[in-house]
Amino acid sequence: MAKKLPLHTKIVLGLLLGVIWALFSSYLGFSTFTINYLLPFGTIFINLLKLIAIPLVLFSIITGITGLKDISALGRIGAKTIAIYLSTTIIAITVGLVLVNTLSPGKHIDNEQRIINRISYELWVKQTPGMSVIDQQHFLTDPKFESYVADAQRKMEFDQSSDLVRSNLQTVEKQKTSRPLDWIVDMVPSNIFNSLSSGLMLQIIFFAVFFGVTIVLLPKEKMTYVIGFCDGANDIFIKMVDLVMKAAPLFVFALLAGKLAEMAGNDPSRLVEIFKALGFYSIVVVLGLAIMVFVIYPGIVSAVISRKTKMGYFESLRYFLKGIRPAQLLAFSTSSSAATLPITMECVRDNLKVDEEVSSFVLPIGATVNMDGTSLYQGVAVVFLAQFHFIDLTIAQQMAILLTATLASIGSAAVPSAGLIMLIIVLESVGLNPAWIAIIFPIDRILDMCRTVVNVTGDAAVSVIVAQSENRLHLKEES
Ligand code: ASP
User: Fold this and answer.
1) How far, in Å, from the CA of 175 to the mean position of ligand 1?
2) Ligand 1 atom closest to Cα of residue 409
3) pTM for the full model?
4) Given this model, what pLDDT does residue 1 score?
5) Is the dihedral of CA 10, 290, 429, 152 positive or negative?
6) Is any atom of ligand 1 closer than 6 Å to the C-beta of 140?
7) Is 302 in the pocket of ligand 1 (CB under 6 A)?
8) Cα(290)–Cα(285) distance, rounded to whole angstroms?
């Protein structure tokens, strides 16, 4: 019976059992057991996926390029990919900003608390060189609010003292590039082994494209063995994905049980408390993400494919969401688009019928530069935190958020919590206190799981669009 269940159903079961196990272990007080003896299997799962992802990207891009009839298609596909990725990111941030401005989750808290928060913000501005209050209001010097200053001082000191904030601020300082073209320089590796061992995806993509194009430029007879080797290696890694996926339901169970146990500890009421404080904010983020997954992407995909295939709107909607489902489930479980990449590649190739020459190129780039979920989340988070501190951001300031969130999502690594770290940059860019990430940190893992689903779905949607525009979408009448 269990054998007959499709894989994605088994993964869903694994997810559900993981949640149930975590709840029990938290209520009955054996969370430490779960963390010590189940979570390691979740970590093994992520390690296996990452192990496959890097060589798979390398060989699939090389095989993709050597299989191209016309090498000039590469430049065209690349340009389209980047343009569409940027457009979907802008759409995502806009959805987030519209929702957070209309639903105002940060304003639904006690007014006194917001005043204290506001004054703590002004105190932070006062002690930070080069900062000024971003709206022209001054609560700190207003005698009406004098009685709140002591509380605000305490809050500000508490915000600044968090270890989480300190270590993340240091990470961001290190990541900041000093010159405008540094990001291009960073894409060109000086030592490919170094790039491979550090998993620097853009450098690996650069090398693979360079290698693939050079093969094409050399006489075919001389390249037979190299091409055969890359083809074979590609097949091996694709098969490895299949093998790992067979055990995915169990791995997913262990991963989720372990991660939730880490969050809840032996006191499940902690989860309830976290949700009470950040519930409305989380709902706005999840609503925005759901709009992307269930409305925007399927809408765009069906608009693009239903013109050329006989599929109606709902049919193409089903084709897209059903095809990408296994990757979505894994994105949700692992919180990492990089770890999910091998499965995304499989789903897009086998279920969505995108030519491998397109998917092998578009998806790895997407895993690194296209993070619609992350950027939507950053837009919502910044405006929510501003509202929470009694700050109304102007349209111009929100446009600045749109720009920095787009750039930050390109710069975010495709790993858990990368979006939270990049949020520091977005907050700083509009003149807000980066230490505020500590406020939303408690709910971050869960939101991270959801935004990773969007990141992966966005990459898949763009692959379909690019493939269709290149006549490389191999859809039959009925899929
Ligand atoms: N975890 C996300 C991803 O891998 C990035 C983030 O939003 O933190 O796509």
Assistant:
1) 17
2) 7
3) 0.87
4) 47
5) negative
6) no
7) no
8) 9
Helices (H), 28-148: 31-37, 39-66, 72-103, 111-127
- The alpha carbon of 40 and the centre of ligand 1 are apart by a number of angstroms equal to 21
The amino acid that residue 47 corresponds to is N
Interior/surface letters 323-353, b for 16+ CB within 10 angstroms, e for the rest: bbbbbbbbbbbbbbbbbbbbbbbbbbbebbb
Per-residue confidence (pLDDT) for residue 321, from 0 to 100: 94
Ligand 1 close to Cβ of residue 422 (< 6 A): no
Residue 200: pLDDT above 90? Answer: no
337 C-beta closer than 6 A to ligand 1: yes
Task: Tell me the pLDDT tens digit for each residue of 52-111.
Answer: 999 999 998 999 888 877 788 888 999 999 999 999 999 999 999 999 999 999 888 778
Q: Which of 48-62, 175-189, 260-274, 297-311 has the highest mean pLDDT?
A: 48-62
Distance from residue 381's CA to the centre of ligand 1 (Å): 15
Q: For 312-443, where are the alpha helices, taking DSSP H only?
A: 313-334, 337-346, 356-369, 372-388, 395-411, 418-429, 437-440
Question: In the predicted model, what is the mean pLDDT of the chain?
Answer: 88
Q: 64 and 238 in contact (C-beta within 8 Å)?
A: no
Ligand 1 pocket member 335 (CB < 6 A): yes
Distance CA(123)–CA(121), nearest Å, equals: 5
Q: Whose CA is nearest to atom 1 of ligand 1?
A: 416
452 lines ligand 1 (CB under 6 A): yes
Q: Is 454 in the pocket of ligand 1 (CB under 6 A)?
A: no
Q: Is 451 in the pocket of ligand 1 (CB under 6 A)?
A: yes
Using CB atoms within 10 A of its CB, is residue 275 exposed (0-12), middle (13-18) or buried (19+)?
middle
